[in-house]
Design brief:
With 347 residues, the chain is α/β, with parallel strands linked by helices. The chain has 2 domains: 92 residues, 3-Layer(aba) Sandwich (Udp-n-acetylmuramoylalanyl-d-glutamate--2,6- Diaminopimelate Ligase, Chain: A, domain 1), CATH 3.40.1390; 218 residues, 3 Solenoid (UDP N-Acetylglucosamine Acyltransferase, domain 1). It is built from 5 helices and 37 strands. Strands 8-11-14-17-22-25-28-31-34-36-37 form an 11-stranded mixed β-sheet. The longest helix has 17 residues. The protein starts with a helix and ends with a helix. The mean pLDDT is 93.
């Protein structure tokens, strides 16, 4: 599209001169962008690459970076107070048709199974090898890709994309505009056993798992069903690959959870929570709204609203940083203590 049209769609101010008919074909990194592509920079770490980039325009926060810019830049500056958000919006504009949008439903008739008691909406495409059990309701404009298995009495909203090899267990509920990536499992049994005299007795999980609207689930994520009630992922929440959500966990709205996080049973997580990779959250605790949990944290007790925590066990990140500094000095401190101890012994 024309650069001027892109600028208009993104509602950005420009610094620099460009021709009215300058076309842009897409987005690239500062290192790899071609002369007909735009790029972006979010901080001083990448400022040195600006002198080398071939991009015709770069999204940045001009006020915060202008004193560090190389002289005589050859690109147009697209000024944004939130360059990463503007970059995300630009990717939406340049998004091309994916492979799942080029097929028609009639191409696959007879190559999948859907129960006679289940219904699917208008313009929904079911790919070869899909199995859909009894009593399911699937909304309009959905794409359910190959080798996905959907159990009984599953409800799926409109505009849902389910990538290959996903398993959706009985009674699960999936809202509108959700995306579930390959290999994920929604509604499997939780890890629930009671110890008896001989061994472990399995707790039968009769609940269900629910994804509210606009949830995105990464690849190979496992979300267990509730033991007796439900496990719920709030609207707008995004979950990275390889995350485990145990039975009866409730996650609020607009949370982001990075890869390899594990959340134990019956914990409640508030809205707008950010959880870094490889974090572990114990069961039966409450995490407030707008909390930030740093990567590899071990959270074993309740967390209040707006706290930022780190470490294992996790506590205030400010205190944790101070503790890490002291921890590094322990060998030196121990050496000094031994020297003092020897001196006292001689005395």
């Amino acid at each position: 599209m024309l650069l001027k049209d892109l600028i208009s769609k993104l509602s950005l101010q420009t610094i620099g001169i460009f021709t009215e008919n300058l076309n842009v074909s897409g987005i690239g990194s500062l290192q790899a962008a071609k002369k007909d592509e735009i790029s972006f920079v979010t901080g001083l770490k990448y400022i040195k690459l600006l002198s080398e980039t071939k991009a015709c325009a770069v999204i940045m926060d001009y006020e915060s970076l202008k004193s560090k810019l190389p002289p005589n830049v050859k690109f147009v500056i697209l000024d944004s107070k939130n360059p990463y958000l503007s970059f995300a919006e630009a990717t939406q504009i340049f998004k091309g048709a994916s492979t799942i949008e080029v097929y028609r439903e009639d191409s696959f008739k007879g190559l999948y199974f859907i129960s006679k008691t289940s219904v699917k909406g208008k313009d929904t495409i079911i790919f070869p090898g899909v199995f859909i059990g009894e009593g399911c309701s699937i909304g309009d404009n959905c794409k359910i890709m190959s080798n996905t298995v959907i159990g009984k009495n599953v409800t799926i909203g409109n505009n849902v994309i389910i990538h290959p090899n996903v398993a959706v267990y009985d009674n699960s509920k999936i809202g509108n505009d959700c995306i579930i990536h390959a290999g994920s499992v929604i509604g499997s049994d939780g890890f629930g056993y009671a110890r008896g005299k001989v061994g472990y007795v399995k707790i039968i999980h009769s609940g269900y798992a629910e994804l509210e609207d606009n949830v995105e689930i990464g690849a190979n994520v496992t979300i267990d069903r509730g033991a007796v009630d439900f496990t719920k992922i709030g609207a707008g929440t995004k979950i990275d690959n390889l995350v485990q959500v145990a039975h009866n966990v409730i996650i609020g709205r607009n949370c982001v959870i990075a890869a390899q996080t594990g959340i134990a049973g019956s914990s409640e997580i508030g809205d707008n929570v950010t959880i870094g990779g490889q974090a572990g959250i114990t069961g039966h605790i409450s995490i407030g709204n707008n909390v930030i949990i740093a990567a590899q944290s071990g959270v074993s007790s309740n967390v209040k609203d707006y706290e930022v925590i780190s470490g294992s066990p996790a506590f205030s990140i400010k205190e944790w940083r101070n503790s890490v500094v002291l921890f590094k000095k322990l060998p030196e401190l121990f050496k000094k203590i031994k020297e003092i101890s020897k001196t006292k012994t001689k005395d």
